């Protein structure tokens, strides 16, 4: 998943929570500025000192992040934009693949679907899958198992890694349902791309429309993220990847 235009989605958003940024005599929390959450492409700004942080130390932290190839960074406190990376101006319109950071976006979409009453987190995916797709063991995996990477699916490092670079899977959901179960669902955490690929497919079935269409209307539009600000890969069956 890529993005451009200085927006959250598609960039690896880095949240710096560093104790050394706090000044020796920080203002009481009750006196710190709190910005109103924005819905759009501009963010309310404040100086670090207005929210209880030290400008010089924050600048050092941002420089350190840049030295570790964190090329586009925004730091927020109390809904205020208080710092930006030194290379933001050069990288703000460059699309980047944020790889597994997309999993967090998928989790947000799942939360919205749950809030809208369209998704039951505790339900087995059997509730949403078409008849005949996957065996009983795989259909017993719950949405929560997929969200928490505890489905028990065997990890296919080679196939998962290749599709992360080139979206060549014929059908990522079918492939996920064809992976052997190494552990009973809900018992062992095992980081896998197929979990979230299967989750995006289940989400599409639950909300009754293409995942990216639902995400654009329910998540991105309210944040001021336009459809042309990002590219989100699909497999050859048209299913949205959960991590690309």
TrEMBL record:
Keyword Signal (UniProt): yes
The UniProt keyword set, sorted, is: Signal
> Domain Beta-lactamase-related: where?
92-232
Pfam families listed in its UniProt record? Beta-lactamase
Q: Where is the signal peptide?
A: 1-26
Which protein are we looking at?
Answer: Beta-lactamase
**From what organism does this protein derive?**
Nocardia tenerifensis
């Amino acid at each position: 998943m890529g993005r451009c235009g200085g927006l959250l989605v598609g960039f690896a958003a880095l949240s710096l929570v560093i104790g050394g940024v706090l000044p020796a005599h920080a203002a009481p929390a009750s006196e710190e500025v709190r910005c109103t959450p924005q819905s759009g492409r501009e963010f309310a700004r404040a100086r670090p000192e207005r929210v209880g942080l030290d400008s010089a130390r924050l600048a050092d932290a941002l420089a350190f992040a840049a030295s570790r190839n964190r090329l586009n960074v925004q730091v927020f406190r109390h809904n205020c934009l208080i710092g930006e990376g030194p290379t933001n101006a050069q990288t703000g319109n460059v699309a980047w693949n944020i790889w597994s950071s997309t999993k967090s976006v998928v989790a947000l979409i799942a939360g919205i679907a749950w809030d809208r009453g369209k998704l039951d987190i505790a339900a087995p995916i059997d509730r949403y899958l078409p008849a005949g797709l996957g065996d009983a063991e795989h259909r017993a995996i719950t949405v929560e198992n997929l969200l928490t990477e505890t489905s028990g699916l065997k990890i296919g490092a080679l196939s998962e890694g290749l599709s992360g670079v080139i979206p060549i899977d014929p059908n990522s959901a079918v492939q996920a349902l064809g992976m052997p179960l190494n552990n009973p669902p809900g018992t062992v955490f095992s980081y896998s791309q197929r979990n979230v690929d299967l989750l995006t497919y289940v989400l599409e079935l639950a909300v009754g429309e293409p995942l990216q269409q639902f995400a654009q209307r329910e998540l991105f539009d309210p944040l001021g993220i336009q459809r042309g600000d990002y590219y989100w890969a699909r497999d050859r069956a048209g299913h949205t990847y959960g991590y690309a």
